Amino acid sequence: MTLYFENFRYDVEKQLLYKNNELIPLKRNQAALLEFFLADADSIHSKEDILNAVWGDQIVSEQVVFQNISQLRSIFGSDAIKTFSGKGYKWQLIVANNPTSAPIETTPKPPIKSILLVFIGFVLIATITIFTAQKDDTTDFYVLSTAQEDRHLTGENLLEEALSESSLFKLSSSASDLSVNQAFSSPKLAFKKSNIPPDAWLTWGKVYSSERQSVFHYGLSNQLFFWQGYIEAEKPESLPNLVSERFNQLSAIGVFSSQERPLDLDRLRTMLSEAPGDPDLLLMAAQYHINTNQDDIALSYLQKLLRLDALNENSYYKAAAHWQIGKIYKMRGQSLQALNSLDAMFNILRNAPIGHLHFQYIKTKAWLAYSETDHETMFDTLENGLAFFEDSSSEQPLLMFKLHILYSILAQKASDHEKKFVHLSQAQALLLKHNLDESNLAIIYYHFALFSQYEEKSSPAINKLTSKQGSYAIYLEKILDLPRTKDNFWIHDEAMELLVFHHIEHKTFAAANALFIDKKMTPKRQFLRAEILLAQNQHSDAITLIKEAFEQAIIDYDTRTAIESALRLYHHSEDDPKARAEYLAYLETNANQSWLREQLVLVSNHGN
Which residues neighbour 440 within 8 Å (Cβ) at sequence distance 6 or greater? Predict the structure, then answer.
């Protein structure tokens, strides 16, 4: 049996959902919940009915209902399921047993005079549109004129050659002190620093050549989102035509339209319906679902990319897909599968000079070895990575900087304090020597803040660094004054949290609250403000904030904040056994069990 609604069809027997013949992967609970709604689309269903029908005898929180409904709304649209306060939820889309059985609305035929007026109106609109299109049908592109370290590369010239003759694009240049690698790492920062019109696009790229092929790694950024991809050719002279063709394709599928609309899931799916085999879109769809903790859906997109006939076995898209798969398996604790995926990635990159993919391979493999407490392999991986970049034909100081920082972090975790300071010092030297963007200082300040609490008088390298550090809080505050990028956003968030607890410890509550001035209120920041209120014994206001943080964190797929909030609410709901059971059920479903047991013991001891 197959059910149809709007441009979707659902095969009930196989539990398969399609949108315009494109398979939309569903998790088991999502499929069960969808079937429940479709089976009785005319009724309002309570949370209890949904829990009984979908989860049966499983002990789960009512929050899983809200979470799964939110996920279905992200697929079918926010209006597909309506909430009736105090009653439940109702399916809103018309369901039919065949694609042509949905009711067709009919309207009375308008009089001839009205038709004539409408026709004249259309002619006028069409005339205005054609006249306007003659002047405004181009997309404004600004090619990043890169910093000195990249001038020996041909990315800038390649873009100018490929796009300057196209009637679709109006081309200009934008001088910047950022490198191409920095633009890939911080695209919004690159756009902001370019000072170009808000409705324009910034583009940049880098050419890599090997015995096997030539590759152009390109990037695009506007105010709302970032796009990157690879263009592969057997000969470098073929690249300009291929770049021109690729940008025309991007224009055709609507990448450059809707300047004020972000690249959300609905827009990704719309573009995928136009170009179902586009490797960039498949990678971006996978990344979206990784970010929202829907790993199974992400894996389905990545496997589809690996099966594309248009890509050869050594395509860098396949290397990127193997890397994402390896990350997913690593996060799941499936080390053997993660290592197999990373090995497949390395086989593609073995003789390739594409630095950023090599860095991701080194980073993921080193963290995997650390998670297995295999410090020997971890350090070998890091040393091999340094050797690769030192032997690389093109100098890549930003990636070397990141690798030394990674080395320092993992050395700290392995308790090798000598190495952690040596590599932190080398990273700082690279930053100063190559005048890397100040946003990269965030990780240096973060290390200084953490390491300032560690003293080891016997090491000259340590003394040289720590003598210049100053206080713990000063370095954390410096981080918040730096530009926020997609590379350092987690450091900003960590610095905010550490500062809040620093001020709570020292009872400097005014300074703690000042951290939130002019800051967007995210679930994590709501939680931190509640911590300040708890420290001031304002329990009622604090609990209200934590409940808001918990609910919004679930909607935003911010599992870490949701777990932290649920644990706090569990601790402070001794007088409400029903609510306490719900928070415990959420924790048991979503948190690491060994961690949860430790936390519950702490809560119990605190209560006693």
Answer: 398, 401, 431, 487, 488
Choose among 212, 210, 161, 159: nearest CA to 183. 159
CA atoms within 13 A on the CB side of 381: 27
Containing 216, the helix (H) or strand (E) segment is strand 214-221
Angle at 96 between CA 95 and CA 98, to 5 degrees: 150
d(CA 527, CA 544) in angstroms, rounded, equals 10
Structure tokens at 112: 């001839």
Query: Rounded to an integer, what distance in angstroms lies between the CA atom of residue 187 and that of residue 202?
Result: 9
Residue length of the chain:
608
Distance CA 398, CA 462 (A): 24
pLDDT in tens, 430-488: 999 888 889 999 999 988 887 776 544 334 444 444 444 447 888 899 999 998 888 88
Handedness of CA 449, 452, 454, 457 (dihedral sign): positive
Mean pLDDT, range 338-349, rounded to an integer: 94
Q: Where are the alpha helices (DSSP H) in 137-235?
A: 155-163, 180-185, 187-194
pLDDT single digits (tens) 577-607: 898 899 999 888 888 788 888 888 777 666 5
- Amino acid (1-letter code) at residue 372: E
Give 193-212 pLDDT, tens digit per residue: 888 888 899 999 988 887 77
3-state secondary structure (DSSP) of residue 10: strand
Which residue type sits at 457? Answer: K
